[in-house]
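Subject: complex prediction, re-run

Hi both,

The earlier run crashed halfway through, so I resubmitted it with identical inputs.
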Amino acid sequence: MQKTEAAKDQSKTSLPNGEGQGGVKQYSTLNLGPTHPATHGIFQNILKMDGEIIMDAEPTVGYIHRAFEKIAERRPFYQITPLTDRLNYCSSPINNMGWHMTVEKLIGCKVPKRAEYIRVIIMELARISDHLVCNSVIGVDSGAMTGFLYVFQLREHIYEIYEEICGARLTTNIGRIGGMERDFNETAWKKLQKFVDELPKHLEEFQKLLVRNRIFMDRTIGVGPISAERALNYGFTGPNLRAAGVDYDVRVMNPYCSYEDFKFNIPVGKSGDVYDRFNVREQEMWESLSIIKQAMANMPDGPFHADVPEFYLPPKEEVYNNMEALIYHFKIVMGESDVPKGEVYHAVEGGNGELGFYLISDGGRCAYRLHFRRPSFIYYQAYPELIKGSLLSDAILTLSAMNVIAGELDA
Amino acid sequence: MENTLLNTIHEKLLTKFGEAIISAEQSYDFPVFVIKTDSVFEVVKFLKEDPEMGFEFMTTLCGLHYPDNKGQELGVMYQLHNLPKNLRIRLKTFFPISDPKVQSMTPLFSSANWQERQEYDFYGIIFKGHPNLKRILNMDEMNYFPMRKEYPLEDGTRTDKDDKMFGR
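This time it finished cleanly. Structure:
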C-alpha cells in the first residue's frame, strides 16, 4: 500500500495538472481487453487513468455467455453434467460432483461410502490443479515464467489420472447421478500413488521459487487488498475470502460427500492481498494432498454406485441381455425417469468458492429452473474497488490472484 | 432442529411484519418464506441487522417465472446465510409480470449489484434503486428477456423434427 501512496504523491508533483494553464485536469481512457494476453480469458475493462494510476474501472462481462441456465431447462438431468464442466473448466470434476449431489439430494439417494471417498479424491485433485494454475499465473504476471511451466507438468499428471478414470481431460463429465461410472482401475491407482509421492517435492520447489522471493513479495504484498467486512458484503467465498481472514469453507460448514471423515485445516490470511491469496492457495494444496492420502488409506470396500436404476445407467452387457436393464436404459436416455417435485440448493467448495446449484423440479423431465451460484461472477464485481488507486501492473496481478475464470463468470 | 429454526424465525417475522409474511415452510434443508414484494427489502434489512438474526451474507439471488400464477408470474428468490451460526434461509417474493418491480438489495449487499443486473437481463425484473440497471450477459440491443418461459429454447416452427412419440 505504501508504495501506491508514494506513487500517488509523486504523480501529484510530477504530472501537469492543468492549473495555471486555464485548463482542467484530464484523464486518459485505456481499454484493457477483451483479448489481452495478460488477462487470461475474455475480460474487458475500460480504465480511467491518471498517468499510470487507475482512477476508475468499468468491467464488461458476458463475452462467452452460453445461456446455460436456459439450456438446462430443456435437458434431462444427466445431460446437464456436461454443461457444468464448462463453468469453471480448471476444476470441472468439482462442478460435476456438485451437480450429481444436487440431484441426489432431490431424489433422496444415499451414495455408498466408497463412491464418496473416490469423489473426494477426484475433487481434491481438481482443487490442486485449479490452485496450481492460479498460483503459477500469479508468478507469470509478476515476471516468473519458470514456475508456470514447471507446475504445468503436475497438472498434466492430474489430467492423466482423470483420463484413466473417465477418458477425458479438461471437460471431464466425471461420475454419474448415484455414484461413479466406474471404479478406479489398477493404472489409476498407480498413477495416483505416483502423483501423491511426487507432488510434495515439486510443490516445495515451486514455493522456494516464490514464497520468500524478495521481488515477488515486493510485487504482491499490499496489492489489491480487501477487508473481511467488504469481502463478505461483496459475497466473496473460497480462497479469496479466506485470504481476508474469514474461515468459511463449505467442506467444514456444511459437510457433503463424507468430508466430515477427514482431518484438515483451513488456511486463512490476514490482509486479503495478492500475497495472502497466493499463500492460502499454496497451503490449501498441502491440505488437499493430506485429504487424498487419508482417503487412499481409509478407502472402504463396497459398491461404487448407489442402487438407483431409475437414474444410474446399467452396464451395457445387461442392457443387451436383461429386459429390466433395457427398460431402465431406455427411460434414462429418453429422460423419462420420474423425478420428485421440489426445490433444493446444494453447495460445494469449488476451486474458487462456494459453487451452488439451485434446482426447482416440477416433476417434469427437465429442470423447471436451474440457477448456478457462480463464485467468480459474484466476487468479480469487487474488482474496480480493489484496483482503484493502484498501478496498471498491479491491476493485472489482482485479476490473476482473484482467479476469475471466464467460463464461470459468463455461464 | 431445522424445524425449530423455521418456527423461531417465522415467529420473529410475524411479530415484526405481520401479514407481510405470506407463508413459511421447510423445503429439504431450507426454511422458505414467501414475503410480500413491498416489504421484502425491510425483511431482509431486519434479518441482516437484527443482532439475534445476523444473516449478514447473501449467498445468491435469482429470478423465477411461473406463467400460470396469474398476477404473481415473476418472482425473486434470495438466500441468506448466518455465517457464525451456520444457518441458511431462503426468501421468495412474487409480483405481476405487468409491473415487475422490486426493491434493490444493493444498499445492503454489494454482491447484489451484478446478480440483480443478471436477473434484469434474464427476466426483465426492475430493481428499484439499483445504481446501474442494464444488461450484463446479453448484448445491449436485445429487446426481449430470454429466460421467460414464453421463449422456447428451440424454434417452435420447425417441421423437420418429429418428437411426438416421446412427448418432447
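DSSP finds three helices and seven strands in chain B.

- K.
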